[in-house]
Structure formats: structure tokens, C-alpha cells
Amino acid sequence: MKGGEASRRAVLRSVLAAGITSGLAATASGARSDDGRRRRDDSDGGKTAGVNTNERRREDSNGRRTAGERNDGGRRDGSDGSRAAGEDADFYGYYSTRGYYWWNTFTMTSGLEDGYTDSDIRPVGTGRGLPRDTRTAILFVHGWQNTFEHSVERFQWVQESIDDNQFVDAAVVGFSWPSNTDGHWYVGTDVARSNGPALAAAVADLRRRGIERIHLVAHSLGALVALSSLSSIYDDEGTYVDSLHLVSAAVRDESVSTDGEFGDDISSVRSEFDAASGRYRTFNYYYPNDDVLRFGFEAAEWSRAAGRVGCDGPTPTGYEDIEISPRSHYDSFRDKENGGQFHTIVGRMIGVDPDLSSADEDLGISDEIDFFG
What we know:
The chain is of the alpha/beta class. It has one domain (3-369): Rossmann fold (3-Layer(aba) Sandwich), CATH 3.40.50. The chain has helices at residues 3-18, 148-164, 185-194, 196-208, 222-235, 263-267, 291-301, 306-309, 342-352; strands at 31-32, 38-39, 58-59, 65-66, 93-96, 101-104, 109-112, 122-125, 130-131, 136-141, 171-176, 213-219, 243-247, 282-286, 319-323, 368-369.
């Protein structure tokens, strides 16, 4: 480990002890297994991964037995079309990697549980089903320290924002990743990066299921997951996203510049509509008064956040910074009535994808199919 990185991690331990990053975190608890790894209740409401799961495993859609899944309280893995966790929510389904990762909060390391690869995902459907004529999906990635229950709540908020907007016809699909890393920021960023290929696999799976247009929306540290997915998305011929929306992004401001870590990948976000037109495809919604990023992210990273100040440096092809003024960091992706700026995001989506606008059509569910059946 380089000296600078070691120093930053040492400082972060002090920062965490002082509670400065608590603004970024939700309350979470963990269980320590015999090998000293800290493991989470991250398997969609099931038992902690790696602990007493032999009798609680179920088959996923690829036939792999997934650790930690159980059907207590009516929850199931959804692969057989039965009830899934989050069934009462209004969104249409989600992909999950919960239960696939371990981490050690003392050494600040993480990795995949045995038997999984970085592109493994678990598709789970809800009771609502996906309308047969749906061509457009909004794939939403939540931020740091979200439990499974928190992620379901956020997916529902986004779907409610879509349903309340009479100009948009789209279905929300969530991406639920194991982000509640016991308040340890560097473990969280490692896990976020590691989930990039899995998010790319979710995009590819949506394409295979007939979804024609995919708009990727990521909040807070979810932006790191989304940006880390781009190289894998565009390595797969025929797989792409029609637009990328980073909301209150917990990533370094220079990382989204032309010369930054993700500059080349951002320039790849071009859809089939008018690839040569120069239209913007990547939007970074930043809030200068975001104190969560100012005092949490920036204290930990020793760098300004793109979600607070925008891009530092020349911007990649197709990238645009957009200043927003939500009620808070946590509300930025919600609808206007709840202090958010989702109407701004929708406006950019329609600018990229005119067919997304359908003011005279209702997103009905009378002719529905099981999304992940």
C-alpha cells in the first residue's frame, strides 16, 4: 500500500471514530463468522451469508444454490415466480448481489464468497409484474449503508416518482448491492467497485428480456457502482445504456473528467438514437450545499465530490454537469413533493429518449407478465 493511501486510511479511522461520516450511513449491525470476516444480513432478508445456511438455500434462476435465502415471512427468492421480498412495493423487480461478498472491517478488505463470480446476479421479481408493452426501464442503484429493506424503499420511491409523472412511461428495476459495510467507508468503496461487472450483467439481462431502452440512475456511492460497470457494459457487444444519471455522486470530482479514471468509459455512453449527434448522454446532478458529501466523503477521500462541485477538468464527450437544489443529499433522487429533483432527471431522459414521453398513455398492469419468471 502506498504511503499516501495508508495515511488516508489512518486518518479515516479517526474520522470514523469521531462520527464525521455518520451522515452517510444508516444504522447497521453485523455478525462475525469463525474466520474473523464480518458478514452481513445481505441476502434479501435472509440469514447472514455463511452462517447456518444449509437448510435455508434455494435455487436461483441459473440453478446455483444461493446462500442465506429463506422464506420466513413469505419471502422467497422469486426464481419460481412466487412471492418475493418487497412484493408490496410498486417497482417491477430487482437484481441482487447480497450474500455474495465478505469483508473484514479490521483489515478493510473484501472479496467474493466461494462459488460466486463478480458478474453473478440474482434476479427477483415482485408481484406487480412488467407490462408486456414496456420498452423502457430505469435501472436504479442505491447508495452506501442501505440495508435490503432500505433499498426496496428507495426503488419504490423512484417508481412512485415515475408513476406520478404523467409524461413518462417506464418501469423501475432496482439493483440491490451489499452496501451496509458496518460504517467502514473504504470497505464500502471496494465493494462498490467490485459490483460493477454485476451491474453490467443486469443491463445485459434486461436487453435479453426485450427491454429496448435502459436509463441508468445511481445515487451517492451507487455512482461508483455505475461508473465501474461501464467498461464491462461496453465490452459486451450489443449491450449499452441509453443514458447515465449520477445523482449526488460520491465519487471524486476529477474521476469523471476526460483524463480521469472514468473519462473514457463516460464517453462510451452513446445510444442507438443518434450516436453521431453529440447529444449529452451522461448527466451529473450536483448540489453545492451537500453537507453529507462535504463532511463525509471529502473528509474520507481528501478530494471534492463530483456530486457537490461537478467535474474538475475537461469534460468527456456527452457529459453535462447540472446543478440541483434538493432538500438534502438523501432526497435528491426523489420527486419534487418530497424535496427531490427527479423532475430534472426526467427532463434529461426525455431529451435523450423522446419515445420515453407518453403523456396520453397509462402505465397499466392489466396485461402483465412475471418480470423474472
